[in-house]
Design goal:
Elements lengths: L6 H9 L12 H15 L14 H17 L6 E5 L4 H13 L6 E6 L5 H6 L16 E5 L5 H9 L6 E4 L19 H5 L3
Parallel strand pairs: 1-2, 1-4, 2-3
Helix pairs in contact: 3-4
């Protein structure tokens, strides 16, 4: 993984038994994937590369599970889906479900990616796009940084009409990134309303 990944993520992977190989942060996920491919090529009998970025099972599981859950939880009242993006599986699967299965073709999907590893933005800015689920999804996307005062919030104020229903999906659970910006004393309005 890129050396820019959080300490919490490193600790979690080590606790699960992983041997971490950190790659140059400036090369982002592309560099980490290249290193993983080298490791597998060096001993294909010992290593297996699951290809989470291009494995169709990744978005398919979100199309079958996360999409229906969001649709049910919002009673179908979702106009904008905002998702943190790593592999693109959640973003693609949920968007497919809402657009294709439920027929809401005007859904706007907003991808929020880490500033220290902007895989999609790098590809769109002239790098070669990888054959990953997010790049090939065909869904309208806006790219924004995942940071305090992020562009995602400003764009939602500018582009979405009052009365629009926005649904956000953080990329991982709170337990995986307790030191991250999102969890420094901030609580979801819905959770506060429910007394949690």
């Amino acid at each position: 993984m890129p050396e820019t990944m959080s300490i919490e993520r490193r600790k979690l992977l080590k606790a699960l038994g992983a041997n971490l190989v950190l790659t140059e942060g400036a090369k982002g996920m592309k560099g980490a994937i290249q290193k993983a491919e080298e490791i597998v090529a060096s001993n294909p009998e010992q290593f297996l590369l699951l290809q989470q970025f291009s494995n169709p099972a990744n978005p398919e599981i979100h199309e079958k599970t996360t999409g229906p859950e969001i649709w049910e939880d919002t009673d179908g009242q979702v106009d904008v889906f905002i998702s943190g993006v790593g592999t693109g599986g959640t973003l693609t699967g949920v968007s497919r479900y809402i657009k294709n299965t439920k027929g809401k073709k005007d859904l706007i999907t907003v991808a929020v990616e880490p500033t220290d590893s902007p895989v999609i933005a790098q590809a769109l800015a002239g790098g070669r796009a990888q054959a990953g689920s997010a790049q090939n999804s065909g869904y309208r996307r806006r790219l924004h940084s995942w940071q305090p005062g992020s562009e995602a919030g400003r764009q939602s104020d500018r582009h979405y009409q009052r009365g629009s229903y926005l649904h956000g999906a953080p990329p991982d659970g709170r337990r995986r990134h307790p030191g991250g910006y999102l969890f420094r004393g901030r609580r979801c309005r819905r959770a506060e309303a429910a007394g949690r």
